[in-house]
């Protein structure tokens, strides 16, 4: 059996006790009650003293990770490496993300050191082929979904922030040209990888990710980008943004480096939930892009790109719904009313049964779609079914969670009101993810 | 991880689909209208199915072949009899649920025998067609409250009481009857007995007229000093608090995924027919991530399909766990609860989407909407499944979470 590369990276983690991490990486709630003033703040020019990506003169031919061979039998067992990843990330989520989540939500910021922790986990390494410094040998959307589940069990907002650069690396590996891969992918394997994100959503009701209003026109030297993006995870922090825009009547992705550019303006776009992911609104005004900013070539498939994003989105939904389930069980067993635990009442107990049924429904639909993607089979139908089911059931899970705790569910002393807010995002956002 | 149906089951799925399409569908309406008439067309088919099972190198499929619970965990990954039976019944019920329930030698009693019989009993009774008699006029979901008694008298048990809702109760060659050895000892004293047809003292007193599955006979059976050989008690005759009732209930862990599969086949039939009727109007399925700009009916079909797919995968999981010797009581109930409710909801919605065409008898949609209701009731109602799941999740006994 080939060893799943992330397993190797994650094994590092076993040497570090979770609690120690909190202090060493500065993950204890460093609550910066600072600038997140929300929609009242106007757009400002995005001028990061950010990372510059060096053009390489001699690039490698493009690499595509091969699909795995389909199995002979139905099998729900995780392989050894997947199990290890799940176990390691569950500990990380429990010991690191969960304790930091409330303060991160409150301050709408990411604890200092969290990205360093993610780098140490080697998250992005696993999205990058060996030739560019990563450790990925095959495409593995299933493992990506498992990762999203575990991180989101800790906190969906923090998970979204951690998974945005991971997703960009995945997308460049999956779709980029040799030149683009040579320019960007090695950076994701450095000790402190760049921050990056995927900007798809736009501030319009019933937004269809297949039809971005943001447009790209051809210029003498490349492209010119105009439009708005909203709900962009790490939108003001990212060194590299993949931007969905229409080109010649078709949606495409553009690689936008933020260092030293003018033509991008940004303002915070705080939302109902996912506050730790620092959602931002971006405005592109006559942004000049070089000719090689267009992601991918002939094999680029925008729908498949969205479908792969959906798998990760569903993984986030499953993890958060599982968190709700795992929280309400002990709560309802301990909370007494009328002289006995409220879990002795069918009206309460049946809601918990339904939560479990629908969480597993979400999980199995998503796993199947991911397993089909991983083995090179068609998965558009399965991804759409998973997305619709997760959209419906995720929001119900959040609602059930708050309801089961009653008034306690409505106050911030318990995390379920945050999960309620986060879970609403599943049906709402399309950007920031790629399995 | 891989969640596709293995290729090796392609043949049985194909065969079952042929039977559903060529044997069941053409006579589906006929026996819905002619309630209580015996569908003779099934005799020949049953013989074919027996032949398939006897010849199968991997243990075959069907009610009498379901894995016996409590086995040792298997070595490696197994896709076996439980999954195969679920897949087969799913296809057959795509054809007709009532007829599928009337296939000789595929009764629930056969599953009970397979689950708890000793080797000797299996050899003697394994090839009979056995119905299952649990429910009584005063005891439905509360199986532990049954009043039918079995009293040891020499080499025989003497059975007295009344059973209702016995599927295939008139047509089967035997009935597996649940009765108590001692009402004062509660559920531990409940045992199951095989009573062969023609045993003096057993009489079918009534056939029910029903909402759906009219092709299947549902009998009320009376036992008046009905004497059965004591070897016909399935499993252990001792009244043991540890094993007694649980042993009898084990049957359900294997049969619930099968009933879930039945609901899935039926619901799939309704969805497919609805799509077929919608196509000429220009409404074809179109899978989208953003579904709110689609026609309402297309979004609804995508959602129903997602719900059905969830039920299907939960069911495959439960069957897969049984095949691999993993305890699956909670997962079997999750599958049954989900499939029962979405099967019912889907068939009812499909009638609505097709309007008077769906509601009328020209199509089978209205029949499927009637048939589907029983699948959320027998083998444990929706509410019983939720209760079982909740007790497992919350770690509660039946006296705590009632």
Give a quick precis of the structure.
Chain A is 44% helix and 13% strand.
Structural class of chain B: alpha+beta
Overall number of domains of chain B: 3
Q: What order do the helices and strands of chain A follow?
A: HHEHHHHHEEEEEEEHEEHHHH
State the distance separating the first and last CA atoms of chain A.
Answer: 22 Å
CATH architecture of the largest domain in chain A: Orthogonal Bundle
Please write the CATH class name of the largest domain in chain A: Mainly Alpha
Q: Which terms would index this structure?
A:
heterodimer; A: 435 residues; alpha+beta; Butyryl-Coa Dehydrogenase, subunit A, domain 1; Butyryl-CoA Dehydrogenase, subunit A, domain 3; five-stranded antiparallel sheet; three-stranded mixed sheet; 12 helices; 10 strands; 44% helix; B: 402 residues; Butyryl-CoA Dehydrogenase, subunit A, domain 2; 3 domains; four-stranded mixed sheet; globular; flavoprotein (chain A); AcylCo_DH-like_C (chain A)
Layout: helices, strands, pairs:
The complex is a heterodimer of chains A (435) and B (402).
Chain A: H1 5-11, H2 18-24, E1 44-45, H3 80-107, H4 114-121, H5 141-154, H6 156-175, H7 178-184, E2 196-199, E3 215-218, E4 222-232, E5 240-247, E6 250-257, E7 264-268, E8 280-290, H8 302-334, E9 336-337, E10 340-341, H9 346-374, H10 380-405, H11 407-410, H12 416-423
Parallel strand pairs in A: 2-5
Antiparallel strand pairs in A: 1-7, 3-4, 4-8, 5-6, 7-8, 9-10
Chain B: H1 10-33, H2 41-55, H3 81-95, H4 97-100, H5 108-116, H6 119-125, E1 130-133, E2 149-153, E3 156-167, E4 174-180, E5 190-196, E6 202-207, E7 218-229, E8 233-234, H7 244-278, H8 296-323, H9 329-353, H10 355-359, H11 365-375, H12 382-394
Parallel strand pairs in B: 1-4
Antiparallel strand pairs in B: 2-3, 3-7, 4-5, 5-8, 6-7
């Amino acid at each position: 059996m080939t060893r799943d590369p992330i397993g190797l990276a994650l094994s590092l983690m076993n040497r570090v006790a979770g609690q120690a991490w909190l202090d060493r990486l500065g993950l204890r709630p460093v609550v910066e009650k600072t600038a997140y003033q929300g929609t009242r703040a106007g757009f400002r020019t995005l001028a990061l003293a950010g990372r510059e990506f060096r053009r390489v003169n001699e690039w490698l031919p493009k690499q595509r990770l091969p699909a795995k061979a389909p199995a002979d039998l139905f099998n729900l067992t995780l392989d050894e490496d997947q199990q290890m990843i799940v176990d390691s990330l569950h500990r990380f989520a429990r010991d690191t993300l969960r304790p930091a989540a409330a303060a991160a939500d409150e301050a709408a910021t990411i604890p200092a050191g969290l990205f360093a922790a993610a780098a140490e986990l080697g998250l992005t390494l696993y999205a990058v082929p060996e030739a560019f410094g990563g450790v990925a040998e095959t495409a593995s959307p299933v493992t990506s979904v498992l990762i999203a589940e575990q991180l989101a069990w800790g906190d969906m907002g923090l998970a979204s922030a951690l998974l945005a650069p991971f997703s960009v690396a995945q997308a460049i590996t999956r779709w980029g040209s040799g030149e683009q891969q040579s320019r960007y992918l090695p950076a994701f394997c450095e000790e402190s990888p760049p921050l990056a994100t995927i900007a798809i959503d736009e501030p319009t009701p019933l937004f269809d990710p297949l039809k971005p209003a943001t447009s790209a026109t051809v210029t003498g030297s490349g492209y010119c980008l105009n439009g708005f993006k909203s709900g962009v995870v790490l939108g003001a922090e990212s060194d590299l943004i993949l931007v969905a825009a229409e080109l010649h009547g078709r949606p495409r992705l553009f690689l936008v480096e933020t260092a030293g550019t003018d033509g991008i303006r940004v303002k915070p776009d705080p939302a109902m939930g996912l506050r730790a992911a620092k959602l931002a609104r971006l405005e592109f005004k006559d942004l000049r892009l070089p000719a090689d900013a267009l992601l991918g070539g002939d094999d680029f498939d925008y729908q498949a790109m969205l479908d792969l994003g959906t798998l990760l989105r569903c993984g986030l939904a499953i993890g958060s719904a599982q968190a709700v389930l795992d929280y309400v069980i002990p709560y309802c067993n301990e909370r007494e009313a009328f002289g006995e635990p409220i879990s002795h009442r069918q009206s309460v107990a049946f809601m918990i049964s339904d939560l479990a049924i629908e969480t597993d429904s979400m999980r199995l639909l998503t796993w199947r779609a991911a397993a089909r993607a991983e083995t090179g089979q068609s998965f558009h139908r399965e991804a759409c079914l998973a997305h619709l089911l997760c959209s419906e059931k995720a929001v119900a899970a959040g609602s059930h969670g708050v309801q089961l705790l009653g008034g306690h569910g409505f106050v911030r002393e318990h995390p379920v009101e945050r999960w309620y807010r986060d879970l609403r995002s599943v049906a709402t956002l399309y950007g920031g993810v790629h399995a | 991880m891989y969640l596709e149906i293995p290729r090796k089951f392609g043949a049985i799925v194909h065969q079952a689909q042929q039977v559903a399409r060529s044997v069941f569908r053409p006579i589906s309406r006929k026996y819905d209208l002619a309630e209580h008439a015996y569908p003779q067309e099934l005799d020949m088919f049953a013989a074919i199915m027996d032949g398939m099972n006897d010849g199968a190198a991997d243990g075959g499929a069907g009610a009498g072949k379901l894995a016996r619970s409590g086995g040792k965990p298997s070595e490696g990954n197994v896709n076996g009899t439980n999954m195969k039976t679920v897949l087969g019944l799913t296809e057959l019920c795509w054809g007709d649920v009532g007829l599928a329930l009337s296939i000789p030698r595929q009764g629930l009693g056969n599953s009970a025998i397979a689950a708890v019989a000793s080797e000797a009993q299996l050899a003697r009774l394994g090839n009979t067609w056995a119905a299952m008699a649990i429910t009584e006029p005063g005891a439905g979901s509360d199986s532990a409250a049954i009043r039918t008694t079995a009293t040891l008298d020499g080499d025989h048990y003497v059975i007295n009481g009344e059973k209702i809702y016995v599927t295939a109760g008139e047509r089967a060659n035997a009935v597996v009857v649940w009765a108590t050895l001692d009402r004062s000892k509660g559920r531990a004293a409940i045992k199951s007995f095989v009573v062969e047809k023609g045993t003096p003292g057993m009489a079918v007193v009534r056939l029910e007229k029903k909402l759906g599955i009219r092709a299947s006979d549902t009998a009320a059976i009376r036992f008046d000093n009905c004497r059965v050989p004591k070897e016909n008690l399935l499993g252990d005759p001792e009244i043991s608090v540890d094993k007694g009732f649980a042993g009898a209930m084990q049957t359900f862990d294997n049969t619930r995924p099968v009933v879930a599969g039945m609901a899935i086949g039926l619901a799939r039939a309704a969805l497919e027919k609805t799509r077929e009727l919608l196509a000429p109007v220009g409404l074809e399925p179109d899978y989208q991530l953003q579904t709110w700009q689609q026609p309402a009916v297309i979004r609804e079909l995508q959602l129903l399909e997602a719900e059905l797919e969830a039920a299907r995968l939960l069911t495959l999981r439960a069957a897969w766990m049984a095949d691999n010797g993993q305890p699956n009581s909670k997962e079997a109930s999750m599958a049954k609860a989900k499939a029962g409710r979405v099967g019912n909801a889907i068939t009812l919605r499909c009638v609505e989407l097709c309007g008077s065409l769906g509601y009328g008898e020209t199509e089978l949609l209205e029949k499927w909407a009637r048939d589907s209701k029983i699948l959320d009731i027998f083998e444990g109602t929706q509410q019983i499944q939720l209760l079982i799941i909740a007790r497992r999740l919350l770690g509660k006994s039946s006296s705590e979470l009632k």
